[in-house]
Structure of Ribokinase:
Amino acid sequence: MKKAAVIGSISTDFVVTTEVIPNQGETVVGQSFQTFFGGKGANQAVALSRAGVDVFMLGAVGSDSFGKELIRNLSENAIHTEMIQTIEESESGSAHIQIKDGDNRIVIIPGANDLISIEMVKQYQEELQKMDIIVLQNEIPLETIEYLIDWCFEHKIKTIYNPAPAKEIAGKYIDKVTYITPNEHETALLFKGEARENVLKRYPNKLIVTLGEQGAVFHDGEKEVVVPAHRVTNVVDTTGAGDTFNGYFAKGILDGKSLAESLALGNAASALAIQAKGAQDGIPVYEKVVGAL
Ligand code: RIB
């Protein structure tokens, strides 16, 4: 069984659904409130695990009651949790999400996720060297991400870097990752002022721009290739769609599938995920995704 490590955020999502998004100084009455397990790192780990990969999560939670639940949830999803630290006197990460018409607005409070330091990840180098792929996002400190990209490059470990939420990072790190998967907004920030077609051409078979309802696009060295998304008529909640996409994309790469085939797997999985509420509840198992291809 292939091994993947996800190094990233673990959070609780506090989700309200509302028909009206309040303006500054305004109070509105919403429809529902629920908590869900979330955090981009944890969501991607769950997607990989449901895809049938042996997954190791490296992260941090606070010493509050949420922290225990967050770790329990990952264990119940068959994810190895030995590399998750509970940080005393820190709160666990949280995301505060408003959903209107299936789409979301999110405020994150990083909490313990912000304490994943270079020193902390160094403690697990021996374990990390055994991985077939390492998956990263932007909900932990940037200096830790930069260190990990350098380290994985030196140790010839494949990486998928999902630069979400958007943050600037030096081009030398983009050169060193195996795949980078920004959405259009993140692409615009990473490659300021450059036309998307030029950047795609500059990073053939590495830069994958996700296009929401349009699917995903990359350059294969000769031409642009668009891998279309599945049409979904009953969108319930798009939270975690990108995480499901990245987890299943990683599964395709681990199985030796082509880039286009791996992206098709990611698209099929995320189309299923958005038909349920909560970032993780809708993440499908592998058989279901293959059936939807
Ligand atoms: O990508 C979705 C995730 O982003 C949510 O689960 C929330 O935790 C936010 O961090």
The first strand starts at residue 3 and ends at 7. The chain is about 35% helix and 25% strand. Residues 11, 13, 38-40, 43, 95, 106, 108, 139, 239-240, 242-243, 279 surround alpha-D-ribofuranose (CB under 6 Å). The chain has a mean pLDDT of 96.
